[in-house]
Amino acid sequence: MMKYEDAVAKYDPVLGIEVHVELGTATKMFDAAPNSFGAGANTSVTPVSLGLPGALPVVNEKGVEYAVKIGLSLGCDIAETCRFARKNYFYPDVPKNFQTSQYDEPIAFDGELEVELEDGTLVTVPIERAHMEEDAGKNTHVGGATGRIHGADHSLVDYNRAGVPLVEIVTHPITGTGKRAPEVASAYVRTLRDIFKALGVSEARMEQGNVRADINVSLRPSPDAPLGTRTETKNVNSFRSIEKAVRFEIQRQATLLEAGESILQETRHFHEDTGETSSGRVKSDADDYRYFPEPDLVPLVPSRAWVEEIRATLPELPAARRRRLLEEWGFSELEMRDVINAGLLDPIEATVAAGTTPAAARKWWTGEIARRANQDQKDPAELVTPAAVAELQGLIDAGKLNDKLARKVLGSVIDGEGTPTEVMTAQGLEIVEDTGALEAAVEQAIADNPDVAEKIRGGKMQAIGALIGPIMKATRGQADANKARELILAKLGV
Q: Which residues form the Asn/Gln amidotransferase domain (predicted)?
């Protein structure tokens, strides 16, 4: 295999990405079967889902609304009229022997999406179309070592997913990415995932297959040369895997071209364990699917008034929101990237809204809470609420807790022992306000450490730390360190 650096130095990579998102409607795209994840096999079905003779489809209005939302968020034009088509092919998980999709008349077209890379570089991805279709069922191949059909004893088909509403977003060729092609592909899909979640059109959980990406890669000798032959790596469902798949395909294709061989237009499978792709089947062109207009569904004609009503309901999109919060919070670019990469933007924003400064909210969520989440292998937002974090910081600001005691309180809150105030009270962790008790601890520390006291009297202020430790120990860590320092200096006449 040619080294990646050599491959991108000799060849210009071109990407094309097709992203499928399962819409979070209550029912399927063309029938009333529930759209749910995890139900018993073949229980979320109707005659339409199963493709039984005489069963007729009806379009899900909410699915169309969600498709329009996605199109508008990608800067697309929304078609004044569009229609569904039959995409004909035989596979056991497609009970009708065709998929109801959109071909030459998509609901949304001609958009673009600005994608921000980790270092802040902006890349504009051109969007060709976003169209509606239905998902296929799911095949499970049993008995083989790989989970694929080759080597399996038999296969099982679950039609629960058949008919689940999808929107497929197809890019124009993405050029000019050079060696950063893998990073651009991953960042693009991540940006789409964030948009789907912000719009509320899908849970967008990649591990459940809500968002799946088909990654097309081709190479050409120079940016002004014609496009090369592409391969399509199917159903890549994690950001890391997308990067690996693009990287591997660039190296593999460059190796073949360098040896004088040609690239076969085909679908390929990505292998999580090795980070490699393997051949699937020769890639079909549109003509092979014998598209024709769906005769059982009338054309869709979204009224301009309805489209504008939907546009008016669109939320602030993730990129604009991040830029606004970066300015409002005063974080550095690096601090904001750390927050975003950790998936902590939402809880930090909610904590700030609950009355805490952005800096304090970031400290807790990226520090102690993130550490505990990593330890417990949970999402940070599962451990504690933003309101509880704000209450905890409020106790610090009020002088009732210091950071060390607050971390102890937080641990108990996460363990379900109550609110920060309840835990502080129950465990007696509030900072000592009794001046007499604190003075006694200070006097004892001075008496036990006369040499340190002399150093302080002589002007060596850094020696105060040697007295603070015993004071904290005597007060079980509940002394206010600043008050203790003031008392030490007063007692020593400094």
A: 346-492
Q: Which residues of the chain have pLDDT under 50?
A: 434
Residue whose C-alpha is closest to residue 399's, from 490, 483, 467: 483
The single-letter code of the amino acid at 311 is R
Asked if residue 432 lies in contact with residue 438, where contact means CB atoms within 8 angstroms, the answer is yes
Residue 170: helix, strand or coil by DSSP? strand
The amino acid at residue 470 is: P
Specify the 3-state DSSP secondary structure of 413.
helix
What residue spans of 259-332 are helical by DSSP H?
304-312, 318-329
Q: 231 near 253, Cβ under 8 Å?
A: yes
Start and end residues for every CATH 1.10.10 domain found in the chain: 435-491
pLDDT at position 175:
97
Residue with tokens 């651009």: 184
Counted residue by residue, the chain has a size of 494
**What topology does CATH give the domain 435-491?**
Arc Repressor Mutant, subunit A (1.10.10)
What sign does the CA torsion over 472, 477, 482, 483 have?
A: negative
The whole-angstrom distance between residue 281's C-alpha and the CA centroid of its chain comes to 31
Kind plus residue range of the DSSP H or E element containing 233 = strand 231-236
Contacts of 172 (CB under 8 A, 6+ apart): 16, 126, 127, 128
User: SS3 of 153, please?
Assistant: coil
Distance separating alpha carbons of residues 439 and 316, to the nearest angstrom: 55
352 to each of 35, 162, 370, 379, how far by Cα in Å? 36, 43, 17, 19
